[in-house]
Input
Amino acid sequence: MKIALAQLNYIIGDFNFNTQKIISAIYEAKSKGADLVVFAELSVCGYPPRDFLEFSEFIESCENSARQIAKECTGIACIIGIPTKNPKVQGKDLFNSAYFIENGTIKSVVNKALLPNYDVFDEYRYFEPAIDFKCVDFMGCKIALTICEDLWNINDNPMYVTCPMDMLIGEKPDLMINIAASPFAYNHDEERVLILGDNCRKYQLPLFYVNQVGAQTEIIFDGGSLVFDETGSLLDEMPYFTEELKVYEFDQGRVKGLKPVEHYPQGDIKQIHDALVLGIKDYFQKSGFSKAVLGLSGGIDSALVCALAAEALGPENVMAVLMPSEFSSDHSIEDALDLVKNLGCMHEVIPIKEATLAFQNMMKPVFKDLPFSVAEENMQARSRAIVVMAMSNKFGYILLNTSNKSECAVGYGTLYGDMAGAIGVLGDVYKTQVYKLANYINRDRSIIPQNSIVKPPSAELRPGQKDSDSLPEYDVLDAVLFQYIELKKGSESIIQLGFDEALVRKVLKMVNVAEFKRNQAPPILRVSPKAFGMGRRMPVVGKYLG
Output
C-alpha cells in the first residue's frame, strides 16, 4: 500500500478553495501511484473554525464539500477532516471527525475523543467526545485512525479517561494514521517528535502523521508531518512552513525504503523568523490585501517588522512612514532611511511636530500650566497613529503593529497610538529575541542598520529618553516575564530563583495592570508556548498580582 501525506494550507470557511485543493491533491497522489492520501484535521473547513461551527449552513457546506471530494475520489482512497452532526439527542451537536472515502463513498467515520480545552484550544465548546472506536479495513490492513490529541499527551492528563488507541489496539491494527492541526511554537517540534515516537513504542506500530501548514490569523501551523516505524524511530520529517505531498510505501507491517533519521532542531530563532514571515503572508493573502504600512522610527522593533514584511509581501508592497518629532534624533532618521534603502521598500517622511503642537495648544486651556508629562508624550504616539491610519484609509494599506512582547507584557505602549494595527507581528517575541532575530536577518548581508541594533532603545517622546528609565534592563525583565507568562510561576517562586523581590513584584504588577491595554490590542502572531491573546485569558479587572 502506498500512502500519501498531503500537508496543505487551508482557508477557514473557504469551501471552494479547500475542496479544490483537496481534489487536486487527490489527483496528484493518484498520479504518483498512491492508494491512500491523507489530509489534516478539519481540512474541509479549516482549523480552527470557532463559532462558525454554530451555523447550520456552515455544517451543510462542509457536507456538500465532502460529497464533491468523494465524487472525485475513485481509484484511490482518502482521509479528510470534517465536522459532523451528532445524531444523538444528548451531548454536543457536533463531532470532530475523519471521513475515510473509497471509490466515491464514505466508507468509515471516525470521531475524535480527546478534545483539547487548553491554551488556544476550545474544542469541548463545540464537539462531543467519541466513546466508540473501530479500525478501518483497507487493502487487507487494519488502520487505527485517530485525530490529533487522540495520540497526544495521553499519559499525563487526568481529564482524558478514554484513550482511543488503548481500545483500538485490541483489534490488532497494522498501522496508525493520525490527522492533526497542531499549532506552531518554537519548542513544539521536538515535543511532537518525542511524544509521537513514544506512542509508536507503546503500541509497537508504525505511524503516519499529517499536520497542516499555514497561518489562521494569530495561530500558525508549521507542517512538519512525520513518519515513524514500530520502534518509535523517526523515518521521515516533511518540510516546515511549506506545502508538500509525499508518498510512502507500507507493506507487511512496515514502512519500506526508509532508514531511521535524526530530528535536527532548526533553532528557535530560525523557526520564529519563518513562522512570522508565513504569518504575515497568510494574513494578507487570506484577507484579500496585498500592501502593508508601518511607522518606521529607526529603532530595532520597527526595523525588524519592516524587514519581515518586505520578505513576506515583497518590498514593493511595504510602505514605511518616518514620522520624526521634535525629540527624534538625527541618527534615528538616518537609520530608518538606511533600512529603506537596504530593503528597497516605499517610504514617506511626514513630520508630526505641527500636529502635536496643535494638540498641545488645543488642550492648553484645560491643562493650564501643568508640567509636560505622559499626556504630551502620548499625543506624539497618537499623532503618528493618525498618520499611518490615514495612509491605510487613503491607499488601502494594512497597518502592521510593531510592539514586542516585553512592551505588551508591562504596558509600555500607547493605546490608540503605537499599539494600533491590524496584526501584531512581534507581540509574542521578547525584546531579547528581537535582537537575535535582527542578527539572523543580517546573517548574509547588512539589512537592518547596525546602529538600530546596538543603540539603547528609546521611544524618543521626551529629551534623552531611554526605555531603561522606566523598565529594568531587558535581559532581566524578559527572564522574569518568561517565568511568569510561559512557566506560570508566581512571585514567590520567581523570587526563590534569585531575582530581586522588589523588581519581581513591580514587574508582575505591571503585567496584570496592563491587561486592559492588551484587551484592546490587535491579534498577535503566536510563536511561543504561551502568547497573549486567546491562549492566555485573564480578567481585565482583578486583584491577583501573582
Remarks:
- The mean pLDDT is 95.
